[in-house]
Predict the structure.
Amino acid sequence: MKIAPVAGRPGELEISGDIDYHSSEHLRRKLAAALEEHGGSITLHLERVEFIDSSGLSVLLDAVKTARARGGRITLVRPSRQLTRVLGVSGFAPFFEMRDGGHEAAPAAGQKRAADDGIRTATFEAEGRPENISALRKSVVKFAEGLPLTQQELDDLKLAVGEATCNALRYGCPTGNETIHVTCTREGNRFSVRVTDPGPGFDPESIPQVSQGELAEGGRGIFFMRCLMDEVNFHFSGGTTVELVKYLPEPVEEGGGI
């Protein structure tokens, strides 16, 4: 993630790259300093934000609360497609002033795809350190790009996987030396991503149930996973596994017709 002042425009910052668990605290400090310097009102240019997760969203929401307490506001300029999606799903878009609107939803993929009844699988792993989470997200999306998914569905998958791997890091990798395993499996029209860490597990029902637009502490990661995936399953045998399931559309046979 990069944060830079907009030349000739006091109180305006351009943010690019990934706003995630790894970078969110750096952003929090920068926004707090900017709000202090500019009387509680700042403008954020976000067209080049490639990814944001619940950690990054929490930083933006906390900044909004700080701005409002000072009688100010935060304005978002051209939020990126993925950020616009996150704000819409979470219900938090109305909390921000918007300038130049947001991006339209990603267009659906239009190409035909041949039937695929076989099983495809791929496994990725990384040490449980914040700087490794981005690579795991991107590896899963790279695998999924060969599936009949729209760009929006790929963005949704990236967010859900990001939340699952972030939880694995936070709760299953206390020393940073543990390994997070990610397994992607496509079998027929069922695509699953299993994220496993060596942690002792938790009770999913104990996580606060977050509603759209609710300014709650915690619980947004699972909220996003459940909103964006068709199934979210938890397994606690030999560590903790979160399984994300997406059902694919029926394939279109090449050369098909009446």
